[in-house]
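Late entry, evening session. Most of the bench is empty. Finally got around to the prediction I had been postponing all week. Sequence below, unchanged from the version circulated by S.P.
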Amino acid sequence: MTLHADALAVLSTWTPPSAGQAALRDRYVDHLARHGDAMTRSCYPDHLTASTLVLSPDLERVLLTLHAKAGRWFQFGGHCEPSDLTLAGAAAREAAEESGLDDLTVGTVPVQLSEHEVPFCDPRGGVHHLDVRFLAVADESAAHAVSDESLDVRWWPADRLPDPEPDLVELVALARAQSMSEPGGDSTWAAADHPSR
């Protein structure tokens, strides 16, 4: 199965947590159906991206990155690469690369979809990332690192985010709710498709 086919299958079968998320899912599925290159940054002006929110095991803290270009705190994520086999695998790779966390396991069920404009993605401007966001859990004692794309990586209280934009606040709330609803050892968790470091 190709990355494009995986994304289409994952999103087509996903049960959104709200009407707004359902509308975004339909938008993403339609975009994938109309664009064979929807998973690549060459698909202008809109393309899918993948990201991961990392929570502590008790769900009380969130590991975020201070994005160098945007100057804001975000979850880990970015563009899909030709080597990615699945959407969750792309999210896991990005999270491992940007956090420095080894053996990071990312859930295979999306947590949130977010469409947002990214002015620095393409010199032509007007690019929209159709981001698919997943969840990972990591121990706070695990060594993390700052990548070339970041100014800082740090744990924050889930209820006191450093840049509490509504989109990020919703992502954290949805991730915590999803994590609490899944029993241990659920098959909706999987490691990255391939080693990322």
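Two things to note before I forget:
The radius of gyration is 16 Å.
The CA atoms of residues 112 and 170 lie 8 Å apart.
Will write this up properly tomorrow.
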